[in-house]
Design a protein that fits this description.
Length: 230
């Protein structure tokens, strides 16, 4: 019995050490937030060990089809460069060891480093004050208005929604800061037939932000993460 177990262990160890000279890489284009629409990429630049390997562009159409399949990939450190939903050049690093015949990587165009915008966040810098956010959206078959108020009292955060106030925790505060930061980063030149308008009211001043992208669903994500609406 012990001999069989030893033989099995050696066999599995040898299988784990197996390497392929080439492998296939499947690059999936997906969403980080489930409410986001699918944002297709128009191009993807691939670097291997810091050197340009190839630039993928759809010649026949506007966007790349997902998944993207790359054959004959050698072992190395790869970087995938693309523009995200917020117009930022984004890099995704992936180490390929060729332990498997097929490797898979996911790219999330709706994801971005919101911390660079967070210093501008009113919510993050609230001190015994409140900020009101109004939301309006209108499309071919709908018209919706909604609002909420975030306040800070003695270091604690509260949210007022539908005339009900509740204290929120650190994770919810971080989600609110991320939401506000995304608002400042989103461009208003999308081609969506649905228009979203956000109005941020703070200290008798109003800042209005227009979202023309169908693929960013900031308010829907906020409803699930903060307001527990499904």
């Amino acid at each position: 019995m012990k001999v069989k177990i030893l033989f099995l262990s050696i066999f599995l160890s040898l299988m784990g050490c197996k390497e392929y000279k080439f492998s296939k890489l499947i690059v999936k284009i997906d969403n980080a937030n489930k409410n986001s629409g699918n944002l297709p990429l128009s191009e993807l630049t691939v670097y291997k060990n810091g050197i340009l390997l190839k630039k993928i562009i759809n010649i026949d159409g506007l966007f790349l089809e997902s998944p993207i399949k790359l054959d004959s990939i050698e072992k190395g450190n790869y970087v995938f460069e693309y523009y995200n939903l917020f117009g930022e050049k984004t890099k995704r690093q992936f180490k390929i060891e060729n332990k498997k015949e097929i490797d898979t990587i996911a790219i999330f165009p709706d994801q971005f480093d919101f911390e660079k915008y967070s210093n501008k966040s009113i919510i993050k810098n609230l001190r015994n004050k409140s900020v009101n956010i109004n939301y309006n959206t209108q499309g071919c078959f709908h018209k919706i208005s909604d609002s909420l108020t975030i306040s800070n009292k003695n270091g604690n955060y509260y949210i007022l929604y539908n005339n009900q106030q509740k204290q929120i925790d650190k994770k919810q505060i971080d989600n609110l800061i991320k939401f506000e930061s995304q608002l400042y980063a989103i461009s208003d030149d999308g081609l969506c037939t649905t228009t979203e308008i956000y109005s941020i009211e703070f200290e008798n001043k109003t800042k209005q932000i227009k979202n023309g992208h169908c693929v960013w669903s900031g308010w829907n994500n906020l409803e699930e993460e903060i307001l527990n609406k499904k």
